[in-house]
Amino acid sequence: MASCAALRLCLRTTGHSLELSAAVGKPEDVDEEALRRTAGPLEYELYVDGNFVASKLASDLEATERGHTVSFSDLGEGEKNLELWLPTCVPLDVYRISCGGEAAEPLKDDLRPVWLCYGSSITHGGPSAASPSCTWPAVSARACNLRLMNMGFGGECFLDQAVARAIRDAACDCLVLKVGINIQTMSALTARTFQPALLGFIQTVRDGHSKTPIMVVSPIWYGPLEEKAPLGMPGFMSLQEVRKSICQAVSTLQNLGDCNVFYRDGLDLLGKSDAHLLYDDLHPGPEGNIIMGHRFAEFEFGDRGRLLSGRFSSQQRPSYSLPEVVNEKLQGGYLVDMPGENRSGIMLQLREGKLVAFSQRSDWPPQLVHVRTPFVFLPRCPGVWGKVDGQSISFSNGATWTRFGLTK
User: How far apart are CA 408 and CA 389, in angstroms?
Assistant: First the structure.
C-alpha cells in the first residue's frame, strides 16, 4: 500500500492563505486494485499554530488522476506555522503550494518528540474511520504535542522483517507496536510461530533503538473472534490467546533485561463495553478513534505514562466537535440510479443501532451503511463512498440515491 497516513505539510509563512494543487499518484510496483479498494474522499485539514482552522474536500467526487486544488483563506496576520494533514486514502503527488504570494519555508526547527506508531488499518485510519487528523494516533499525538510517524498498514501488519528494519533505521523518541489483529483474523501465524515472530521483530527494532521506550499493544475488542480462532484447526488462536501471547513475549524480553519495553492490553483502549463504537464490529468510527486516542494519551503520555510521561493532562484535554450522527435522519426510501442499469429502490433502516440498506434487487443483499458526516460508506463495496447533499446521496461509482418520501 502507498496511501498517506498522518502525512502533513508543515510550513512557516506570513501569508493570509494557503492553496495546494495535487493529483492522485500512481506509485510504481504498487497494487492498483488494492488502492482502488481503499479509495475515499480527498479530505484536507489545516491547523494554524496547533489550532484547527478548517477542513476542505477536493471538488472532484472521484479519486482519479485528475488534478485538484484546495484553498484556505483568512489565516490571520503575522508569521504562523501551518500544518496541513493530507488525505489518508490515496497516494498523492503535490505539485504546487502557494501562500498568497508570500514566502513559505519548511519547518526546520520542530523540536517536538517523534512518536512512531506501527499497526494495521485501525492505526492507519482510512477514510471511513476518521478524518486525516482524527485517527486515534493523530488524536493522541496532537493532545500531547508530538510529531507522529504513522506506519499503519491496512490489511497487513504481519511483523515483516523489512518493516522492522525500516523502523530500526527511523529516528524517533518512542515506539508503539500495535499488533495481532490481522495475524489472528487472517490466520497468518499460529501459537507456535507468532511469539517468535514478535520477539524477532522487536529485537530487530532494538538494533537501532537500544534504549527507546517501546509499547506493545494487543488487539482491541472484536466480538466474533474473542473466544475462537478463525480456523477450526489446532494451533490457531483466539484473540484472548493472542493477547496472552503478546503479554508473555513482552515479559520474556523484560526478564532478559530490557527495561524499556512495555505491554498495554488493547481492551484498555476499546473493550467489550465500547463495541458500539466499532462501525463494522472491528474498526472504530470517529467517536471511537477520539476516545481511543485520549485513553492512550492518558495511559502512556500522562503523569504515569511509560513512554513520554507528563505530556498529557486530563485538565488540558482538547475539545473535539464530533460530526452530527445522522443515521436516524437518513432512514427512509430512496430511488437508485446507476449508470447503465434500470432504476431500483432501496430502504435504509436502523437495526440494533446500525444503519442497514435493503434493496429490492435480489442480487443486492442487505448490507451495513456506515455514516461519517457528510460521507456514506458501504463496507461490502470497498472503494465506494458517497456524499450526502440534501435529499440525495451521490456515490463515487456514479450511483445516486434520491429520497422519495417513504419513512422507516
Answer: 20
Q: What angle do CA 105, 109, 112 make, to 5 degrees?
A: 125
Q: Rounded to the nearest 5 degrees, what angle is found at the Cα of 86, between the Cα atoms of 176 and 44?
A: 130
Amino acid at 338: M
Look up the pTM and report it: 0.91
Peptide bond preceding 374 in cis form (omega within 30 of 0) = yes
Give the H or E element holding residue 329. Answer: helix 327-330
Give dist(CA 73, CA 57) in Å, integer. 14
Measure the CA–CA gap between 356 and 332, rounded to whole angstroms.
11
> Burial, 308: exposed, middle or buried (Cβ in 10 Å; 0-12, 13-18, 19+)?
middle
- CA 289, CA 137: separation in Å to the nearest integer? 8
The amino acid occupying position 59 is S
Q: How is residue 363 written as a grid cell?
A: 442480487
Cα separations in angstroms, 408 against 57, 67, 219, 348, 404: 31, 40, 36, 7, 12
Strand partners, 177: 118, 216
Q: Name the residue type at position 362.
A: S
Got the DSSP string for 201-229?
HHHHHHTT-SS--EEEE-----GGGSSS-
C-alpha cell of residue 257: 533485561
pLDDT in tens, 72-90: 999 999 999 999 999 988 8
The residues, ordered by sequence, that sit 6+ positions from 371 with a Cβ below 8 Å of its Cβ are 325, 326, 327, 330, 355, 377
DSSP state string for 376-407: EE-TTSTT-EEEEETTEEEETTS-EEEE-S--
- Write the pLDDT tens digit of every residue in 4-47: 777 899 999 999 999 999 988 877 777 777 777 777 888 999 99
- What per-residue string of b and e applies to 312-343 under the rule 16 or more CB within 10 Å gives b? beeeeeeebeeeeeebeebbbbbebeeeeeee
Contact 91, 124 (CB under 8 A): no
Q: What is the pLDDT of residues 297-334, one digit of tens each?
A: 999 999 999 999 999 987 655 555 555 556 788 999 99
Could you give the CA distance from residue 266 to residue 273 in angstroms, rounded to a whole number? 13
Q: What is the 3 state secondary structure string of 344-362? A: EEEEEEEECCEEEEEECCC
